[in-house]
Design goal:
The structure is a single chain. The strands form 3 sheets. An 8-stranded mixed beta sheet has the order 1-5-6-11-10-9-7-8. β3 and β4 form a beta hairpin. With 418 residues, it is an alpha+beta fold. It has 15 helices and 16 strands. The structure holds one RNA strand of 77 nucleotides.
Length: 418
RNA sequence: GUGGGCGUAGCUCAGUUGGUUAGAGCGUCGGGUUGUGGCCCCGGAGGCCGAGGGUUCAAGUCCCUCCGCUCACCCCA
């Protein structure tokens, strides 16, 4: 039996690695422009970090985490999301004392033990942003801007919908929750089994139910919109105004909920038509109570995450890469030995330079040169050694010229630098 | 955790009602050009037909079990 990677864990082969790097480079560029700083936290944390941060009764914590007991008896967990760990680090190093507003990003793997499907893996990657320290709705809008900007620079904006909602705050949310619970209890018999379960675990989730009968019943259910306090309402209003100023189209979705307990007020999802059932390519929201919950001071926060694998699914194919650098086709002992010096020299000068490890025929080496996508091929065999002239061929234009051997390798630098 | 679909070459897939040495395209390597890549032509390598068991004179093909992949539910990035 062949050894294979474990379920939901994927090898990232060279072609895909290249496309990922393109996404990461772009994200970093945008982050630098917006003044964010990178932070990298461990993939492994004490289980407590996530249990407290995400919420004991969320699906993620209850059944999706990679949790194990370490050799010293301590419970550890592979991070299922980035926020809790980053905030742990912010608190541990008192980063909030270094600046009134922390703007942080991280890119890396997350782990959830779910059944894999399109756009869902057990090890997946997120581009993550956290703003810690601002109550301003402009912070919310900034976060959404970043998510939107990165996603739409790789995927067609037309195929996307930004959904936004407010979950309220500790003042107004409990009122809604109380009424909703009452409503669900009264209509228990009309609801499907899933919704009866949700009513106990995560009541807001019932609004996501696809069951037609549930939908009819829930039309009469209390909606957060009608409970939202003036402060939360004005906060949301300013976020929406700012989105308009940024030119980001959106729709309000009063039923939008998040699966993590820590969110309050603004919550959003960037949904794509180009994905399967797992259609959310980026999502996030505000979490004003979380820093304190994790043992830090009372600090507000907003954040978002982009699913890299999902963005990858939406990324259009790129065209042919352009030719670059040099391939040295050397054959015969003398030429091959000489070529080694040139290669060393050119590589140190920062020139992309390849050659054949085997003493193959000229034709075979030319083929290799072509495949390597080199722009130029330097041809050196017995004849060239004898005439003391090498041949430099432009693989794109097919033009060839001769170069005196004693001008090599310096002479090449001029010729191949465009 | 629960369902559906699918497992034949590195990749994408053919493979008659079970019948002899399992095929194609792409890719790869080599040759056609005694020293010049892509296009074209020719050739080579590469398969325990997912694994195990069963039926049969005979199984890639039929039956059972297991494993894997995949899509969906659930949930989420």
């Amino acid at each position: 039996m062949q050894i294979k990677a474990i379920k939901g864990f994927k090898d990232i082969l060279p072609e895909e690695a290249k496309r990922r790097r393109k996404i990461e480079d772009k994200a970093r560029k945008i982050f630098e422009n917006t003044g964010l700083k990178e932070i990298r936290t461990p993939v492994l944390e004490k289980t407590e970090v996530f249990a407290r941060g995400i919420g004991e009764h969320t699906d993620i914590v209850e059944k999706e985490m990679y949790t194990f007991i370490d050799r010293n008896g301590e419970s550890l967990t592979l991070r299922p999301e980035a926020t809790a760990g980053i905030l742990r680090a912010v608190i541990e190093h008192k980063l909030y004392n270094t600046s009134p507003l922390l703007k942080l990003y991280t890119i890396g793997p997350m782990f959830r033990h779910e059944r894999p499907q399109k756009g869902r893996l057990r090890q997946f990657h997120q581009i993550n942003v956290e703003y810690v320290g601002s109550y301003s709705p402009l912070a919310d809008a900034d976060i959404i801007f970043l998510a939107y900007e990165i996603v739409t620079s790789f995927a067609d904006p037309e195929g996307h919908l930004l959904e936004i909602n407010s979950l309220g705050c500790p003042k107004c949310r409990p009122l809604h929750r109380k009424d909703l619970l009452k409503f669900l209890e009264n209509n228990k018999k009309e609801l499907c089994k899933d919704c009866q379960r949700r009513a106990k675990t995560n009541p807001l989730r019932v609004f996501d139910c696809k069951n037609e009968e549930c939908k009819i019943v829930l039309k009469f259910a209390p909606v957060m919109k009608h409970y939202i306090c003036p402060d939360c309402a004005s906060h949301l209003g300013k976020v929406l105004d700012t989105l308009e100023a940024y030119g980001i189209p959106f729709v309000q979705n009063p039923y939008l909920v998040r699966g993590l307990d820590y969110y309050n007020r603004t919550t959003f999802e960037l949904v794509s038509k180009g994905l399967g059932a797992q259609s959310t390519v980026a999502a996030g929201g505000r979490y004003d109570g979380l820093v304190k919950l994790l043992g830090g001071p009372e600090l507000p926060g907003v954040g978002m995450a982009i699913g890299v694998e999902r963005l990858l699914l939406l990324m259009e194919e790129e065209g042919d890469e352009r030719r670059e650098g040099l391939f040295i086709a050397a054959f015969g002992d003398e030429a091959r030995e000489e070529a080694l010096y040139w290669i060393g020299y050119l590589r140190k000068k920062g020139i992309k330079c390849e050659f054949s490890l085997e003493d193959k025929s000229l034709k075979a080496q030319m083929k290799q040169a072509d495949k390597s996508k080199a722009r130029y091929c330097l041809i050196v065999g017995e004849n060239e050694i004898e005439n003391e002239e090498a041949i430099l061929r432009d693989l794109e234009t097919k033009e060839q010229e001769k170069i005196d051997l004693d001008e090599l390798p310096e002479g090449i630098l001029e010729k191949i630098k465009e």
